[in-house]
Write a structure and sequence with these properties.
Blueprint lengths: L2 H7 L3 H8 L1 H18 L6 E5 L5 H9 L4 E6 L2 H10 L5 E5 L12 E7 L2 H8 L12 H17 L1 E12 L7 E6 L2 H13 L7 E5 L2 E5 H15 L3 H7 L9 H10 L2 E8 L2 H10 E5 L8 E8 L2
Parallel strand pairs: 1-2, 1-4, 2-3, 4-5
Antiparallel strand pairs: 5-11, 6-8, 6-10, 7-8, 9-11
Helix pairs in contact: 6-7, 8-9
Bound molecules: S-adenosylmethionine (SAM).
S-adenosylmethionine binds next to helix 2 and helix 6.
């Protein structure tokens, strides 16, 4: 089966619930609320949700901002069919399409959401031969993310904005030493480093519980090890095909700058993830503390 098909077919109901429920989802909406209130377009008629999934957050903004229409777009037929079955609202339209087809559209939108989706473009366009056993080539993945954003830029109305949420890489890629504070986390980290097919991470155990690793690899490890720790094989089977962090804030800024957008961004860690990380890890050297997990950004197109 083609890699993206395998990935689509592994997603179960709990996967979708997890994206829109719980503390990370609350964190996401709070961060988006603040950015949209401070820098969002003055008038929002048309909204586009790319990689829409269940589209719950975009639907919230359709109502909150008094929008007239929302187009939910996803390349997964099952996602689009489920959304069409679920909602009968005449303001809504569901389209099955790939993000790379957007450049052909004559539609223009005031607010475009890409919520936790661009990392999938990075992950699946970033594998040289579409082979899951091969690690993602960062240069290829980054190029795909940039090309996708260039397509998105064409459907944003002047003065409109793109809102992105995702995990993020910390600014600098430096060597760090972290202490793993308990046996359960130690086992999960060991398995993660042995089994993660998306990237082979250069690392060294300098003691039974002390890990030396690059800070960008640590960012990735931190968001994924708990699927192994919590023995959640269904989720791990989806997530292990991806890399959830691909850009630093500075790289997003460059990319949107090139497209004629002004970037407003916040980084932070949802409280539940922060508490789990603090119980499991301590930064010993290389960085002042554990890196932030997530980016929320609003990129505003010149009017
Ligand atoms: C992690 S889910 C996020 C769903 C939703 N945005 C949310 O935050 O709950 C990523 C979604 O992006 C879609 N997707 C991934 N790559 C895509 C592409 N190239 N074109 C369109 N949709 C894509 C997937 O099918 C999936 O529904």
């Amino acid at each position: 089966m083609e890699l993206t098909q395998t990935h689509k077919s592994r997603k179960r109901d709990a996967y979708w619930d997890n994206l829109v429920q719980g503390e990370t989802a609350q964190y996401k909406v709070k961060a988006l609320d603040a950015l949209i209130a401070a820098h969002g377009p003055s008038k929002v008629d048309g909204l586009l949700d790319i990689g829409c999934g269940t589209s719950e957050i975009a639907l919230h903004y359709l109502d909150a901002l008094g929008g007239r229409r929302l187009v939910g777009l996803d390349y997964d037929a099952a996602v689009v069919e489920a959304a069409a079955r679920r909602y009968g609202d005449p303001r809504l339209e569901w389209r099955q399409a790939d993000i790379f087809e957007l450049g052909r559209s004559a539609d223009r939108f005031d607010l475009v959401f890409m919520l936790d989706m661009l990392h999938e473009v990075y992950s699946f366009c970033g594998r040289p031969n579409g082979d899951v056993a091969e690690p993602i080539d960062h240069a290829l993945g980054l190029d795909a993310a940039r090309r996708a954003l260039a397509q998105v830029a064409t459907v944003v109305a002047p003065g409109g904005a793109v809102a992105i949420t995702d995990n993020v890489l910390c600014p600098d890629d430096v060597r760090v030493t972290v202490r793993v504070l308990n046996a359960q986390a130690r086992r999960a980290v060991g398995r993660f480093l042995d089994e993660y097919p998306a990237r082979r991470m250069a690392h060294r155990w300098t003691g039974a519980d002390t890990l030396e690793i690059g800070s960008h690899d640590l960012c990735i490890l931190l968001t994924q090890y708990n699927k192994l720790k919590q023995a959640d094989p269904a989720r791990w089977n989806v997530e292990k095909l991806e890399i959830h962090q691909y850009m630093t804030v500075a790289e997003y800024r460059d990319c949107f700058g090139d497209l004629g957008f002004t970037l407003h961004a916040t980084v932070g860690t949802p409280p539940d993830a922060g508490a789990e990380w603090t119980a499991d890890f301590r930064m010993e050297s290389g960085l002042p503390g554990l890196p932030d997990k997530r980016i929320t950004l609003l990129a505003v197109k010149a009017g």
